[in-house]
Specification:
This protein has four helices and seven strands, in the order E-E-E-H-E-E-H-E-H-E-H. It has about 130 residues and is of the alpha/beta class. The chain has a single domain, classed as STAS domain (Transcription Regulator spoIIAA), CATH 3.30.750.24.
């Protein structure tokens, strides 16, 4: 199942995979939230956590996400996937070329960094180091 993560930064939504995740879980848990965000005219900044509580994520669930992102491409600003699965980072790099918005994979121990990345300004110039 996919459970909503409550301690997300303002303007972002997050979901954690717990146990077995099927395509119906995505349609019941994630899609309604994304519809509300898009209907409110907000850009989607989304985090998926696939950590130790996940036992299996069906390909159909990931396909449902990709299909939704393709249909609502202009609404997605950033997607962070937090997982220790070795295949996740290269797969996300390939998919990020095909879909608008930015997508990035993070290892589980960088969950806090993933949340920070979601709220960063997309085109903000780098900040100068202090004290120089």
């Amino acid at each position: 199942m996919l459970l909503r993560i409550e301690d997300m930064p303002a303007g972002t939504v997050g979901f954690e995979a717990v146990g077995e995740v099927e395509d119906d879980d995505w349609e019941k848990a994630v899609e309604p939230v994304l519809r509300d965000v898009i209907a409110a005219g907000e850009e989607v900044r989304l985090l998926y956590l696939i950590g130790t509580k996940a036992s299996e994520v069906e390909g159909d669930a990931m396909g449902a996400d990709l299909g939704y992102r393709a249909r609502h491409a202009s609404s997605f600003e950033r997607v962070a996937v937090v997982s220790d699965e070795d295949w996740m980072r290269p797969a996300l790099r390939v998919l990020s070329v095909l879909l608008p918005g930015k997508a990035r994979a993070f290892p589980v121990h960088q969950l806090a960094e993933a949340k920070t990345w979601l709220v960063e300004e997309i085109d903000a110039p780098p900040t100068a180091p202090e004290g120089n």
